[in-house]
């Protein structure tokens, strides 16, 4: 081995360790700020966001999301009028310069908006902040080639996701399958190390416990058949969710003062609706919590299935920024719960609501993100149910994804034949 080869790999190993630790710091920071904003908005001290919303006063419940949205909107107006906020995946894929300060400020504003009740995912903020901190570390190692820097930035984003949700394997798979779209051993090994380190650092807040509480109930493997039945439902819900978000997302990033009244109105709508459906505010964890507790009613599941994506689209249209993972996850959980409740009502059966709910979440996530393996792993790690239930989530996710592939092939027009020449 040449000295150059040894030095390059030693630099890379040091960068991997630094990126993993910094991604954990990013996860810790964004989680702490999110909790502070949630507690400030709904004036509670302990418990989940759902408990805080339920116990807050009607005025605070209505006006809290609006005030938080105004604060975030003013921040984005000041930020976007001076610079553009590029998307993380495109920046990494193209090897473009990382806007460290811009991404950090944007991540903070995302946390403020989601923490005050906006129907957007909180996973975008730690991904951006982790990538920005990782790029600072990579700035000290200028000898690294562009391909290694791309891997490290992608792994920083996935590790940030893993840190806030305590999902080390899903964080690693997010890096290699969603961002990099590869199975290269160098990328996979880097992703596993950085995500594990980030989750270890993030455990100072997550306490190394699953985000969701799985109920200890008896189950039967016959549920595998229901997973196959759920795949078409997950496909329909996932495609509808994607199309709604694509239609709602502005063609250009909103940069004018219109951001302030638009997001304020969206926050007020969310606040008013939370009087009847306190599960709606936030990234979607409340819907998942109620689903796992078997607390869904038939009408409630149907309304949440419609309202959650509509409110997410409303905040996107108003100029808000945030993740799409957990809103689509919550929408899938509502769809799974609705399907189980309809079957129970029609046939007199007793399906296991938490399992069908999470299977629906995995199926919709597989459709919206294009990676069934990652979707199944992410959903399983969120609750850590019995290991054999992973096959239920995987069957639904793979089934929905394959149906999407088949549908896309059918919708593709045949190639136009070239005109014959004489």
Quick description:
By secondary structure, this protein is mostly helical. The chain has 17 helices and no strands.
Write structural notes for this entry:
This protein is mainly alpha-helical and 422 residues long. Helix content is 72%, strand content 0%. The protein has 17 helices and no strands. Helix 1 runs parallel beside helix 7 and helix 6 (124-138) runs antiparallel to helix 7. The longest helix is centred in the first third of the chain and has 40 residues, at 3-42. The radius of gyration is 22 Å and the shape is globular. The model is unreliable at 418-422 (pLDDT under 50).
The secondary-structure class comes to mainly alpha
| Number of E-state strands | 0
Helix content: over 70%
Q: Number of helical segments? A: 17
**What is the rounded distance between the termini?**
62 Å
Mean pLDDT across residues? 87
Strand content: under 5%
Query: What string, H for helix and E for strand, traces the elements in order?
Result: HHHHHHHHHHHHHHHHH
Q: List unreliable stretches of 5+ residues.
A: 418-422
Q: Sheet with the most strands? A: none
For this entry, give a set of tags.
422 residues, mainly alpha
Which helices and strands, and how do they pair?
Elements: H1 3-42, H2 49-55, H3 58-80, H4 88-94, H5 100-115, H6 124-138, H7 146-165, H8 168-179, H9 185-206, H10 223-248, H11 259-273, H12 285-292, H13 298-317, H14 325-347, H15 353-369, H16 372-383, H17 390-411
Subcellular location: Membrane
Main location: membrane
Transmembrane segments: 12-34, 62-79, 151-175, 225-245, 257-277, 297-316, 328-347, 359-380, 387-407
């Amino acid at each position: 081995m040449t000295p150059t080869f040894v030095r390059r790999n030693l630099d890379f190993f040091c960068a991997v360790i630094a990126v993993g630790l910094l991604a954990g710091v990013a996860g810790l920071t964004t989680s702490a700020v999110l909790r502070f904003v949630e507690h400030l908005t709904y004036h509670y001290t302990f418990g989940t966001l759902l408990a805080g919303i339920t116990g807050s006063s009607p005025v605070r419940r209505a006006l809290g999301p609006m005030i938080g949205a105004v604060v975030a909107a003013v921040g984005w107006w000041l930020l976007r009028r001076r610079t553009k906020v590029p998307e993380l995946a495109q920046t990494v894929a193209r090897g473009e310069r990382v806007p460290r300060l811009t991404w950090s400020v944007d991540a903070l504003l995302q946390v403020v908006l989601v923490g005050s009740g906006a129907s957007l995912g909180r996973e975008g903020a730690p991904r951006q902040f982790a990538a920005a901190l990782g790029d600072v570390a990579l700035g000290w190692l200028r000898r690294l080639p562009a391909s290694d820097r791309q891997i490290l930035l992608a792994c920083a984003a996935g590790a940030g996701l893993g840190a806030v949700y305590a999902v080390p394997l899903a964080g690693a798979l997010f890096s290699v399958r969603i961002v990099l779209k590869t199975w290269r051993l160098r990328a996979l090994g880097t992703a596993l190390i950085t995500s594990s380190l980030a989750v270890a650092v993030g455990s100072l807040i997550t306490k190394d416990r699953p985000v969701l509480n799985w109920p200890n109930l008896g189950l039967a493997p016959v549920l595998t058949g229901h997973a196959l039945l759920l795949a078409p439902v997950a496909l329909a819900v996932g495609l509808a969710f994607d199309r709604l978000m694509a239609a709602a997302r502005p063609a250009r990033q909103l940069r004018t003062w219109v951001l302030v009244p638009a997001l304020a109105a969206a926050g007020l709508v969310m606040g008013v609706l939370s009087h009847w459906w306190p599960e709606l505010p936030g990234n979607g964890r409340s819907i998942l919590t109620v689903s796992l507790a078997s607390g869904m009613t038939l009408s409630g599941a149907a309304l949440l299935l419609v309202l959650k994506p509509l409110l997410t689209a409303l905040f996107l249209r108003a100029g808000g920024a945030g993740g799409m993972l957990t809103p689509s996850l919550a929408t899938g959980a509502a769809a799974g719960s609705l399907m189980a409740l309809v079957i129970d009502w029609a046939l007199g059966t007793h399906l296991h609501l938490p399992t069908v709910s999470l299977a629906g979440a995995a199926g919709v996530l597989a459709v919206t993100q294009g990676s069934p393996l990652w979707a199944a792993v992410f959903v399983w790690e969120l609750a850590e149910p019995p290991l054999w239930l992973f096959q239920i989530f995987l069957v639904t996710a793979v089934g929905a994804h394959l149906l999407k592939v088949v549908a896309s092939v059918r919708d593709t027009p045949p190639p136009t034949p070239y005109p014959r020449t004489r």
